[in-house]
Amino acid sequence: MLIKYNRDGIHHAGAMRLLPGLNEVDPAHFAEALKWPAFKALIEEGLVEEVKEEKVEDLSKMPVREVVELVKATDSKGVLEEMLRAEKREPVVKAIKAQLEAIDPTAKKV
User: Fold this and answer.
1) Cα separation, 98 vs 31, whole angstroms
2) Is 31 buried (19+), middle (13-18) or exposed (0-12) by CB count in 10 A?
3) Which of 16, 56, 73, 88 is the most exposed place for a label (fewest CB within 10 A)?
């Protein structure tokens, strides 16, 4: 499942680790975290959001502008690389490549 973390820094909740922006998490880990009042508070405050699309591949069904905004907020290199494999729309591909470069300027260009 896809979760958006709207805060700087890393957040750990049990076996789940959230980086800023889009994160792919195990639904069982998310369900476990929902048992904790502190994690529920993050959801209520809008700091953690469940993304309607369940998989990275499903993001191609979202409007370009929304996906580009998700990309710009995402710090997970793995999620971005997965998005790059699944996405065909040029503005989104360009945004993903730019974000990957921003995260790791020394990485091999994709």
Assistant:
1) 33
2) exposed
3) 88
What's the predicted TM-score (pTM) here?
0.79
CB count, 10 Å around CB of 72?
13
Greatest CA span in the chain, whole angstroms? 42
Separation of CA 70 from chain center: 7
Separate counts of helices (H) and strands (E) for the chain: 5, 5
Q: Are 6 and 46 in contact (CB under 8 A)?
A: yes
Q: 97 near 105, Cβ under 8 Å?
A: no
Quick: pLDDT tens for 72-101. 999 999 999 999 999 999 999 999 999 999
pLDDT reading at 108 higher than 90 = no
3-state DSSP assignment of residue 2: strand
